[in-house]
Specification:
The complex is a heterodimer of chains A (251) and B (312). Chain A is of the alpha/beta class and 251 residues long. Chain A folds into two domains: 4-95, Beta Barrel (Elongation Factor Tu (Ef-tu), domain 3); 106-212, Rossmann fold. Helices cover 26% and strands 31% of the residues of chain A. Chain A is built from nine helices and 15 strands. The longest helix of chain A has 13 residues, at 192-204. Chain A is globular, with a radius of gyration of 17 Å. Chain B has helices at 80-88, 90-93, 108-119, 146-157, 175-184, 223-236, 250-259, 269-272, 276-290; strands spanning 9-11, 14-16, 20-22, 45-46, 63-66, 69-72, 99-103, 124-130, 164-168, 189-192, 196-198, 201-202, 207-208, 215-218, 241-244, 263-266. Chain B is 29% helix and 19% strand. Chain B is of the alpha/beta class and 312 residues long. An eight-stranded parallel sheet of chain B has the order 3-16-15-10-9-8-7-4. In chain B, strands 5-6-14-11 form a four-stranded antiparallel sheet, with no helix packed on it. In chain B, helix 3 (108-119) runs parallel beside helix 4 (146-157), helix 5 crosses helix 6 (223-236) and helix 6 (223-236) runs parallel beside helix 7 (250-259). Chain B has a single domain (9-57, 76-197, 218-305), classed as TIM Barrel (Alpha-Beta Barrel). The chains are: A alpha/beta (251), B alpha/beta (312). Chain A binds chain B through residues 1-5, 43, 48-51, 76, 90, 92, 95, 215-219, 221-229, 232-233, 237-238, 251, and chain B through 25-28, 31-36, 48, 56-57, 59-65, 67-68, 70, 72, 74, 77, 220, 268, 270-275.
């Protein structure tokens, strides 16, 4: 694996709501190299904040465009969200370890912006003729990212009112498994509750499960040793962000 | 025709092609994908501190960003001396660049033992004693206790003929006085400064933002403090100083050199831009050409020539 730094330009910006924005960035060299499971670091050239780690929703090696979903959680992401078409942003990547292929069926479980890194993997699995089902949740319908695209790739169970009802999409996955569906692999992203729900599933059924994790990162390239995770404090930027499921609940 | 510009510098007996090197613990060439620039362009490489016994480092979260810097509590994850020699060092000894090994001990004896092991390794150019990490469970760090500092430096000195650099803490009444203690115990140079003890509170949760509680502040906030410390050390000692703290640009480097540093280390800035050290080298050449300087000897310590008004 190797990475590079590329000055990218914002092509389009779409605000999904006041906190979530999709940026389309022209970064041809990174779009050519990146594979599912990897992420990039974004840094506006004039920003005094550290770069922010983002796993793209999609990329196209022909057009050189990556789509990145930015959710505002602090001043750094606020600067990214404020980037306008034509603005420059430095990208470092691709970083992290590729998702390891394993035969399906696969269940992809995600919430909110955590849905983003699941889409490239969904495409890769569909291209490899693997059965895949999606269990996705969001605060609002338009935050259920790429809903139509997911539906074209496999069966989708979606939830918009998890927080009100306490019903989790992992409850739906469990129900499907109780009814006889036997996924070999589960991949979770974006929610500790969904990770805990998947841990429960793993207690009842023999299934491999992993989680895409986040931790504060300064460099993204293994130098700062900041993004330690799990029992052995592996670095998410180099040995992740895909990690064994259990690390998602001991964080 | 203009005379060639040289960025070469000396840190005591150590000759460097240029004054730019990474700060310990902020750059790797073995455990992560290789950077997309030729590391041989740097003046030297400084390795992450090595401890005698293996240790995992501190619990996450290890980082908290502030408006002017970065608080870290990494806690020196280390493979231990044996695995360092077998698995880490071989990645560096094949390089053709001055190599500075950084040593962290819990006792004077550990500094001595590690220094002794490194003494027989030809590829190690110099040894930097990390006496000032704010993130490991010392009773207090050697750089804050003149007696302990002297003991640690002297212990390492007795076991190695390599140039010894003492890395000092800003969290003392006088960095210069601590540097003088290091010099008296056999240090050949001082690296000034390590991070400053710092913390941050998450007001949403009411908890500290760093897993271990306290951390060390690096980044731009540290620069004027580090500059003052470099100045102080040059007034208290005769040994060369390696300046470190908040350097982001060639202009910052020049300021350290003018204050008396013979070389500099760059840390947090590499997290913003991984190739910043290479960029700084280019910009240093531009500065030298613009000001008609040909050698760093014209710049190093330049500010000491200025008349300083006495404050009463």
């Amino acid at each position: 694996m190797s990475w590079l730094q590329e000055p990218a330009r914002v092509v389009t910006r779409t605000h999904l709501d006041e906190t979530v924005t999709v940026l389309a960035l022209k970064a041809p060299r990174i779009a050519e190299m990146i594979v599912p499971g990897q992420f990039v670091m974004l840094h506006p050239p004039t920003s005094s904040y550290l770069p922010r780690a983002m796993a793209p929703l999609s990329w196209d090696s022909r057009t050189g465009i990556l789509s990145i979903v930015v959710r505002i959680v602090g001043p750094g992401t606020r600067e990214l969200q404020a980037l306008a078409p034509g603005d420059e942003v430095d990208i470092t990547g691709p970083l992290g370890t590729a998702l390891p292929f394993a035969p399906g069926p696969w269940a992809l479980v995600g919430r909110g912006v955590g849905i983003a890194p699941l889409l490239p993997w969904a495409h890769a699995l569909a291209a490899a003729n693997q059965e895949v089902r999606f269990y996705l949740s969001a605060r609002r319908r338009d935050l259920l990212l790429a809903e139509q695209e997911f539906r074209e790739l496999g069966q989708l169970t979606g939830h918009l009112d998890e927080e009100k009802t306490g019903h989790l999409v992992t409850d739906d996955l469990l129900r499907d498994m109780e009814n006889g569906w036997k996924p070999e692999q589960i991949l979770v992203c974006g929610s500790r509750r969904l990770t805990e729900g998947t841990v429960e599933i793993q207690r009842r059924f023999p299934v491999n499960a992993s989680v895409l994790l986040e931790e504060k990162m300064a460099c993204g390239i293994g130098w700062c040793k900041g993004c330690a995770s799990g029992e052995q404090w592996a670095l998410l930027c180099v040995d992740g962000p895909t990690r064994p499921l259990i690390e998602g609940v001991i964080q | 025709m203009t005379a060639a510009i040289s960025l070469a510098t000396q840190v005591g007996t150590v000759s460097l092609a240029n004054p730019i090197m990474p700060a310990s613990g902020t750059f790797d060439y073995h455990s992560s994908p290789r950077p997309p620039f030729d590391i041989h362009r740097l003046g030297a490489l400084v390795l992450k501190s090595i401890t005698w016994n293996p240790q995992k480092g501190n619990p996450p979260p290890r980082l908290a960003e502030t408006p002017s810097g970065l608080i870290n509590s990494i806690g020196i994850p280390s493979p231990g001396m044996e695995r360092f020699l077998g698995e880490v060092l071989p990645h560096y000894t094949v390089l053709n660049i001055p190599l500075v090994a950084s040593v962290a001990g819990y006792t004077p004896d550990e500094y001595a033992r590690i220094a002794a092991e490194l003494n027989s390794i030809a590829a190690v150019t110099a040894v930097e004693l990390n006496l000032s990490c704010p993130n490991i469970a010392y009773h207090h760090m050697p750089a804050q206790d003149p007696a302990l500092l002297k003991e640690c430096v002297a212990a390492a000195r007795s076991e190695t003929t390599k140039p010894l650099w003492a890395k000092l803490s800003p969290d003392v009444p006088s960095v210069g006085a601590m540097a003088a203690a290091a010099e008296a115990s056999g240090a050949d140079a001082c690296t000034v400064i390590n991070t400053a003890q710092a913390m941050m509170v998450n007001i949403e949760t009411g908890r500290l933002m760093i897993g271990a509680g306290m951390g060390g502040l690096s980044g731009p906030a540290l620069l004027p403090i580090a500059l003052a410390a470099v100045w102080d050390v040059t007034l208290h000692t005769r040994i060369p100083v390696i300046g470190v703290g908040g350097i982001r640009s060639a202009d910052d480097v020049i300021a350290f050199l003018m204050a008396g540093a013979s070389a500099v280390q760059i840390g947090t800035a590499s997290f913003y831009n991984p190739s910043v050290m290479v960029q700084i080298l280019q910009d240093l050449n531009t500065f030298m050409a613009r000001k008609h300087f040909h050698s760093l000897t014209e710049i190093i310590g330049m500010a000491h020539g200025a008349e300083i008004q006495e404050v009463r």
